Amino acid sequence: MEMNGFTLLIGSAVIFLIAYVVYGSWLAKQWGIDPKRKTPAETQKDGIDYLPTKPAVLLGHHFSSIAGAGPIVGPITAAVFGWVPVTLWIIVGSVFFGGVHDYGSLVASLRHKGKSIGQIIEANIGERAKILFAIFAWITLLVVIAAFANIVAATFVANPSAGTSSLLFILLAVAFGLLVYRTGISLFLGTVLGLIGMAAAFYIGHIFPIVLSKDMWLLIMMGYIFVASIAPVWILLQPRDYLNSFLLYLMIIAAFLGICFYQPTMEISPFVGFDLGHGQWLFPVLFVTVACGAISGFHSLVSSGTSSKQLDNEKNAKLIGYGSMLIEGLLAICAIISVAYVAADKLPALLKAGGPVNAFSQGTATFMTALGLDFNLSKEFVALTISAFALTTLDTATRLGRFIFQELVTRPVESRNGGKEQPIAAFLGNRYVATAITIALAWYMSVGSYLTIWPIFGTANQMLAALSLLAIAAWLRKENRKTFMVTIPMYFMFAVTFCSLGQLIYANLGKNWLIVGISAGQAVLSAALFIEAYRVFSNDKGQIPSNLKAQNQE
Questions:
Q1: Which CATH number do you get for residue 276?
Q2: Which of 20, 280, 471, 522 has its CA at 20 to 30 Å from residue 505's CA atom?
Q3: Domain range enclosing 490
Q4: How many CA atoms lie within 13 A of 55 on its CB side?
Q5: pLDDT tens digits, residue range 294-333?
């Protein structure tokens, strides 16, 4: 079956648009979105984490943070099963799984004063469940940082100009933040100056590329995310994500138009089979490999960890939560088209040279030549764009990891200390120390190949999605609202991830004890949390136990 990439892209875009208008609006009605209700960004404004932000800026931050390299790496890696199952899962997953998950996480956090998913679990399931989730989420974030740092470093080695321009973008973001938030110039003028600066940075990176080893790039990135995760959001996180979003939008538009004009055909097989051997079964491997292109637990941490603290009006929650996931789904469709076209004779060499991002850059740059653009410059631009917003995922993941680690270690001591923290807890909970511990462990895991980390990332990420859906369901049940739009994806993701964890443990026994240990730990934590939730769900009339009522009244 031969398929034109243009037809596939247009068809997917139409489906996503209809889903946004129809299903997204239905979800907003079911969840009681109220534009008149004040958001946590307004009621708890502190200028550091809570800050009312214009929708265009927040969309840039949120989308750049959740996208990263996931919608590129996942679909390309999963293409071994054929382009049809990958495409179907991207579409169905984005609309009914990932979109619901992201949107629901954002709304649930808004209803809990901008609190994280872990704190939402505490309010609706219990303190013990919150601790279990926090441990799981922190471990998952370590894997996220390790996986994306590894991928970005490999991209910078293959495309030194992209690494050079990315370093310049960091300095540019700081300048943008100071201009807009401290000197008072308009967002429009700041944006114009920022875009000019980005063009200059791209040119400088092209002319004077810095060539470094992969290990050196990893160290540089670890230093950057340390600073970015502790700095106020207005000086680096928001400006960088906002400016990078223009790169991403431009790349998506260029890829979209390139596919329209180039008219590529899908050269790889539409469907290879259910069992590829060596433990590669379509279920569950496909659903944990595509990851961010369809649903990602990391997104719930972004929605509830940073975006809910910056949303200026509830009416914009659909755009930020549901809309961003659909845009990411469209990017994943572009990725599968690019790899399906170049796979016939170039894909193995491209993957070996620079990983999935390099393969995507090659395919997309080829399509962009139909617009009269130079191939080499286009490839540099695409590699720069992917690595730029992968870095935004890194700094956001590190900030979230710091939040969760601090929550875990700074629990008050009720006896002898009058509710004050113990000295060791205060030390570990210091934002500098918490950040350093998180980064050090992630750096240790990042050394090696992304192929070693990605299976752990995919499974941990999708289990986190299942647990986040569980938290949303618990909140909706407590509010006496419908839960089926959340529980159906939740049960499916639990089935996928428990099967995948079992496969990972069995395949790595006696070979890679790190994967075995992490997978076994995740399985135990997830099972324990599921049991805690079942205890609450099975209570008569959906009422939460008296001990939780007392907690909520406090």
A1: 1.20.1740.10
A2: 471
A3: 5-553
A4: 11
A5: 999 989 988 998 899 999 999 999 999 999 999 999 999 9
